[in-house]
Structures are given as structure tokens and as C-alpha cells.
Amino acid sequence: MKQVYNFSAGPAMLPKSVLEKAQAELLDFNGSGMSVMELSHRSKWFIDVIEAAEANLRNLMAIPDHYHVLFLQGGASQQFAMAPMNLMVKNKKADYVMTGSWSKKAYKEAQNFGEVRIVGEDTNNQIPTLTKDMFDPNADYVHITTNNTIEGTAFSELPDTGDVPIVADMSSNILSTPIDVTKFGLIYAGAQKNIGPAGLTIVIIRDDLVGQAPDSVPTMLNYQTHVKNKSSFNTPPTYSIYIAKLVFDWLLELGGLEEMEKLNRTKADLLYQALDQSQIFTAPIKAEYRSLMNVPFVSVNGDQELEAKFIAEAKQEGLETLKGHRSVGGMRASIYNAMPLAGVEKLVDFIKKFEENNR
Ligand code: PMP
């Protein structure tokens, strides 16, 4: 089989050992004689899977008991609506920090549900400096996007919002480093980058924020429904939850998120260093705002032909999906948790070789 390193922003690579385990268990899960895909979500077999997935995630992220873990569907995009529908209810106001395309989408959706204010906007792909006095103390929450998948920027520290809960879209950097969950009111993430296959969305929500939604909120869009029914009010995305559980097992075996962070820093440093030294490519984001997960880069001269040649030749080498997002162009290497160091080393070697041949 051809060795491919997939730099896609999502759906993204999964750890090989996870895929091998899933393959080995595909036809007969745990002596059931059935695939996980065929198991009833009410069966003991599957309840064991979802409970282990939750326990593993709690363990990895040190999630306290007064937070609920939910396994939902609809993607992070559905959370753009669900968060305001459930949380923007007391004062019907929220502050949104704008750091890229995905925060804009979250902001736009929230406008349907109350008074939404922009606090801090990225200029030139910089994470804005945020001080406590900028936030409205009467806002129901402050929304941030901790890692900006398209722009390749990330928060290095959280803003101080006082008593106002932070709602965070962590789709593209959840589980990449340890975080203090108690600093957040709600965390959400689509699974298809650092968690597992598409079709699953993880929500971590503080208990006091559940149960505030007005009666007009549809049953499936009310967090309380999913808290009360342990994410099985309707049929949950069973296979995606099973793979997520295997990914959590893999992370625990690796030594948890401290170890994952070390590896992620090694990978990102290696790639940024190669780009900073390059004469033909550059990583445009300033060092202090750089994402550990998504690394955009462009040709120094804006030479689109050279970029297209790079992407095509990289593909020949098994370095897949390096094209930048259609809105920004250039290249983007997404180096999520499951991208092995060897994949980044191969990319760095290829960048150097390409440069020698195209100077
Ligand atoms: N937020 C961020 C930060 C993302 O990167 C993405 C997907 N790339 C989304 C939201 C949308 O996620 P989904 O496709 O799961 O709705």
C-alpha cells in the first residue's frame, strides 16, 4: 500500500493503529458477531462503548463532574445556532471575538437570536489584544474560536471575561494541548480533525448552563434533551463514537495531552523553521499567533504557478491535500494529532528539495 501523509484540514488523518484496530473488530465486535455499525445504540455492547468514550475524554481533558459531555450531530456549524438558542436567554446579549472565517459564521448565525456585539477583530491575521473592560459584563457569554483553521492563527492565552462564560469553538485544536476546562462555559468541536470521523460533534457544557432554553427551542436543539438522555435521545452516530473512543485510547496510551502537546510542538517547530528559512516560500502568520495545527504558506512572490507545481509534485510524493483553503489560496499543511512526525519530516525534506530545483 502506498504510504500517504494527508495534510487535509478535515476530515483528517486518523492514527494508523486506530484504523487497524477498527479493521480487526469490523466483522465481530467484542464477540457480538456483529459490526459496531450494526449494533443497537441501546445494546449493552454499544452502551459500554459510549460510556468508555466519555470516561476516556473526561480523563484526557480532566473534565470535572459539573460538566456534561455530549455526543451530538450537525457539526460545529449546528453549534453556531445551538449555543445562542440555549445560552443567549437571560439578557439576550453576547460578545463575539472575530478571528477568522469560522468566527464570522458563528457571529452571523447568533444574530438570529439576540443582540450580538463584535469585540476585538483580527487585523492582518493577528489575534486581537483583549482586556476585561472590552467585554460587556451583562452579556450571556463571550464566543471565541480558539484555533482558526483557515487563517492558521490561534489564541495563546484566554481572554479574561470576568464572570461571563466563554463559549469556545475548539473544532481544530481540541485535544492538541492540555486546557483548563473550568475556564469555559461551553466547548464544542466537530470530530473530523482531532477526534474521529465526521458526523460527530463533541459538546462539553457546564451544568448551570443547561436547562435555560425557552420552550420554543426544538427538542433536538436543546442541550437538556441530550444531557437527560445521555446523548441517546435519538440514534447517535454510533460508529463515529466508537472510532472516537479508539482515538481517546490511543491518546491515553501515548501519555495524554502533555505528551501530545510536546509532539505537536516538535512537528510545528520543524515546519515553521523550514518555512522561515525558505527563499521561495513563507509562512505569513507572525510567530506569536501561529497555530500548532494549521500551517498556511505561500510563495514569496505570489507565484501561483509555482504553488500549483509544488502541490502537484508533493502529491506524487504521497504528500496529499496541501492546497490552501479556496478563500485564501496558497498552501496549508494541517498537522493534527494523528499526523506522525515522519509526515512532517517528509514534507520539510520535500520543501527543501523543491526549493533546490526551483530557485
Ligand atoms: N469551526 C471551525 C474552527 C472549523 O474549522 C470548522 C470546519 N472546518 C467548522 C467550525 C465547521 O465545522 P462542521 O463542518 O463540523 O460544521
UniProtKB/TrEMBL annotation:
Pyridoxal 5'-phosphate binds at A76, S77, W102, T149, D169, Q192, N234, T235. It catalyses: O-phospho-L-serine + 2-oxoglutarate = 3-phosphooxypyruvate + L-glutamate; 4-(phosphooxy)-L-threonine + 2-oxoglutarate = (R)-3-hydroxy-2-oxo-4-phosphooxybutanoate + L-glutamate. The modification N6-(pyridoxal phosphate)lysine is found at K193. Transmembrane segments: none annotated. Binds 1 pyridoxal phosphate per subunit. Its EC number is 2.6.1.52. Keywords: Amino-acid biosynthesis, Aminotransferase, Cytoplasm, Pyridoxal phosphate, Serine biosynthesis, Transferase. It comes from the Bacteria. InterPro entries: Aminotrans_V_dom, Aminotrans_V_PyrdxlP_BS, Pser_aminoTfrase, PyrdxlP-dep_Trfase, PyrdxlP-dep_Trfase_major, PyrdxlP-dep_Trfase_small. It is an enzyme of class 2 (transferase). It holds the Pfam family Aminotran_5. Pathway: Amino-acid biosynthesis; L-serine biosynthesis; L-serine from 3-phospho-D-glycerate: step 2/3. L-glutamate binds at R42. CDD domains: PSAT_like. PROSITE patterns: AA_TRANSFER_CLASS_5. Belongs to the class-V pyridoxal-phosphate-dependent aminotransferase family. SerC subfamily. Homodimer. This is Phosphoserine aminotransferase. It comes from Amphibacillus indicireducens. The lineage of its organism: Bacteria, Bacillati, Bacillota, Bacilli, Bacillales.
